[in-house]
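Every protein is a chain of amino acids, and every chain bends into a shape of its own. The protein below has been through that process, and both of its lines are reproduced in full.
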Amino acid sequence: RRVLLLGEGNFSFSAALCGAQGTHVVATCYESEEEAAGRGGAARSIRRLRDSGAEVVFSVDCTKLKEHFLPGKREFDRIYFNFPHCGRKAGVVKNRQLLARFFHSCAEVLAQEGEVHVALCNGQGGTPADQPRREWHNSWQIVAVAAGAGFVLSEVHPFKAETIEGYKCTGYRSQDKSFCVEGALNHIFTRSTAPLCFTPVSCKTQLGSQNISFQVPQVLVDKINRGFLEENSRHPVRTIKEKLSAGLSQAFPLQNISSCLPLLHQGHPDGVCHSNLFWITLSPGEAPSTEKMSQGLAKAVLFSHFGQGTDKNVQEGCPVPQQFYLRPSLLPHAQAIIKKRAISPGTLQVLSGPVFRKCRITPHSMPVFHEMLVVLAVSRGTENSCIQMLVDNIKTTLNSLHQGVSGVKPSVSLQEATGFGTELNDFAAFERQLGEIQHFLCVGTDPSGSCVGVIRTAADELKSQELVVVSASLNLDLLAVLLCGISDWRMLWTSDKRFLRQFPEGELRLFKSFSLYPPSYVHDVSFWVPDGEEFDEVAFHTLARKVSGEMVVSLQLRDSFQQAGTGRRSLCYRVTFQSCDRALGCREAAEMQLHFREEMQQHLGVTLR
């Protein structure tokens, strides 16, 4: 591998590396050879480097690396810059500017999977790894500076000068003097994936007896048809689904519903807040005729209130309205099976796939997740014992998975639905809209994110005299986040290959983030709400997701007031931008904020202040 060292003072660090097998060292400094050789011990280190076959290059500007190396010799596997400094009494601002230009220069000469190592004195970096930590404005803000050039901080280690044979730090205020490196840190940066390009995407699905296509909402473009549950996938959501299925099959005969479940539902669902649904406009010429839809009614999903019958228009023989939305649940598909009496008593029917729900931006709120729905028909009077058997089996599997991943036994519990109030996460709150719930399945102790499943029995009209249908709906994404120690649900959808590399097929492991201490950028936005209209907060949050490509991690209401005399209402929100998996610089975040403001006026009808 080719290793580039920059800003060497006396070349003692380079000399310590030059003997490593399979490594070609290119050691450089900013000064001329005459100036560099005058430093104590430098001449000896330079001779050692040259004798070992290393390259020694002088007068190298770390901000213009491309100019110093021929095209065929520009790709370095590792770049070291120990204790960079503008010289003399340069302040934090000048040193930040130096690092910014340095990282941009590195991007032109670093191998695709290469690393940039930057050692800084204690406190300079401005990350939580610094102890004590300086105030943000008084640090070099190295992670934010690197993000501007497309790099993420992947590791931080103590810089142990005493373990480097012959190393002696020098260059204090541009002099041949040493400085204190106690508590110094080595920051290791890697390339980030490129920003996503959200081009329009069309998707095909079956609706009734017809194959149709529709345009995917922009906020879901990078999440549609990802194939996480497919047979060749090693994504943790599939592993959890397979482990749960294997555990359940030990207690019940099991049948996977393998047919392709339609992505679209049709109608106006009662009981479900319309602002929580992704409404779809079919591609031109794709809208099926009323006659064809009536013919395909037996196959189409047309429930208006899940678990409480079919669409009112269908019941009354009226034309079917041409309203479509992405499925928010797999429950209607299970109910279609039940109504056709296609369910075998005692056999578990397992349905799985992505479902889509508009929701507020919170740590545990996902606009799309993978649902695993388990349906079981049992004899009347045995439903409670079957529920307990079902839950015990799920709890045993989850306990085994969690203990295998972290070595710690999790707290998996079944909670009565009547005992839960406003502390429900968005997953559980939306499930309540779909019909009555008997129990919540929870992992851990944090009520805001711990609910991962719901248990319910079918509505009265779906029961027979002899049978009761029990169903369990599980949020596989939330389970993956909790079991694998993933701090941000968005990481499940990253396109960075380093995520899946941590999960060999069929295995769950504790996740180690490849983007540490990502910088966050805070902006405020104030606006007047249209007169006489209720402000749709879910639409506001969904627009923030769309504009930022899921880079908004928080939208907090900071102020609300009503103008005396006119009665106009003004709202002020604080918007926080932060990425979990790729570099996000301050300039890009500012551009997102400007775009967000423009889109708010156009789509929400607000007047900016």
Remarks:
- Confidence is low (pLDDT under 50) at residues 290-321.
- The domain at 202-283+321-501 is CATH 3.30.930.10 (BirA Bifunctional Protein; domain 2).
- The longest strand covers residues 368-379.
- The two ends are 55 Å apart (CA to CA).
